[in-house]
């Protein structure tokens, strides 16, 4: 099971030279997608326990359109291992406002984390 959220990255999100957005931006989107996945799976937002790994693979810039995917990797009695991927699907061409849909998404960030569902909210759904 997976969920995908898409979002425009406002230029105001850029904090570094080269119009770069900080890595925490993508992690916040992972939190939103992970919560959506938890609600879909268990009918509860769950509590995020932490990341086992995070890889920053390509820069995210103001003017990009990204998609954050949360995919269930493993399901324990109360724990949920989730794989995350942030992909850039559109990119600004220049500073005139022109942009293009990329022919292939650029993988910007990958992560794996664990969420925990309270005992009274855990389900046995697949």
Automatic annotation (TrEMBL):
<feature type="domain" description="Thioesterase">
    <location>
        <begin position="27"/>
        <end position="87"/>
    </location>
</feature>
<dbReference type="GO" id="GO:0016787">
    <property type="term" value="F:hydrolase activity"/>
</dbReference>
<keyword id="KW-0456">Lyase</keyword>
<protein>
    <submittedName>
        <fullName>3-aminobutyryl-CoA ammonia lyase</fullName>
    </submittedName>
</protein>
<dbReference type="InterPro" id="IPR006683">
    <property type="entry name" value="Thioestr_dom"/>
</dbReference>
<keyword id="KW-0378">Hydrolase</keyword>
<dbReference type="Pfam" id="PF03061">
    <property type="entry name" value="4HBT"/>
</dbReference>
<dbReference type="GO" id="GO:0016829">
    <property type="term" value="F:lyase activity"/>
</dbReference>
<dbReference type="InterPro" id="IPR029069">
    <property type="entry name" value="HotDog_dom_sf"/>
</dbReference>
């Amino acid at each position: 099971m997976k969920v995908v959220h898409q979002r425009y990255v406002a230029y105001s999100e850029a904090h570094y030279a080269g119009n770069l957005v900080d890595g925490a931006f993508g992690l916040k989107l992972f939190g939103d997608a992970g919560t959506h996945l938890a609600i879909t799976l268990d009918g509860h937002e769950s509590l995020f326990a932490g990341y086992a790994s995070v890889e920053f693979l390509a820069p995210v810039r103001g003017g990009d359109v990204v998609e954050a995917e949360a995919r269930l990797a493993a399901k324990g009695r109360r724990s949920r291992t989730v794989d995350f991927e942030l992909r850039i699907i559109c990119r600004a061409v220049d500073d005139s406002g022109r942009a293009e849909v990329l022919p292939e998404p650029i993988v910007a960030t990958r992560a794996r984390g664990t969420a925990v569902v309270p005992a009274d909210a855990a389900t046995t759904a697949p």
